[in-house]
């Protein structure tokens, strides 16, 4: 049994990575820059998107944060936002492969980037 479970798990993980990777290989739907910290903007986006009936996955890396939208917990990423500090700004780049209108999602990214205050100096 174990010899079938491990390969199946590995394939599932690789499929999730490849779906996010293929989104990043497409043209971004939108890109925004603001003065807030990457962590604060990511928290704002995650809180907003969390109000919808989708499954979210966050990945915090040394280069920033990625938040992925999945329609089901084990389904592929249908959209994601990469939130990264760039010089004295934070850039949020939204990629999408939604099969429905996802304007609300990238409007939330824009709202969070625009309204998140800069960190105190």
TrEMBL record:
<keyword id="KW-0449">Lipoprotein</keyword>
<feature type="signal peptide">
    <location>
        <begin position="1"/>
        <end position="20"/>
    </location>
</feature>
<keyword id="KW-0732">Signal</keyword>
<protein>
    <submittedName>
        <fullName>Membrane lipoprotein lipid attachment site-containing protein</fullName>
    </submittedName>
</protein>
């Amino acid at each position: 049994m174990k010899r079938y479970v491990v390969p199946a798990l590995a394939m599932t993980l690789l499929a999730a990575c490849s779906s996010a990777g293929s989104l990043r290989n497409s043209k971004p739907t939108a890109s925004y820059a603001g003065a807030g910290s990457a962590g604060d903007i990511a928290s704002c986006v995650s809180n907003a998107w969390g109000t919808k009936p989708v499954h979210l996955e966050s990945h915090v890396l040394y280069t920033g944060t990625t938040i992925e939208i999945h329609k089901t917990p084990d389904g592929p990423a249908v959209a994601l936002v990469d939130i990264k500090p760039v010089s004295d700004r934070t850039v949020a780049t939204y990629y999408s492969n939604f099969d429905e209108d996802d304007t609300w999602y990238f409007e939330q990214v824009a709202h969070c980037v625009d309204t998140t205050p800069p960190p105190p100096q």
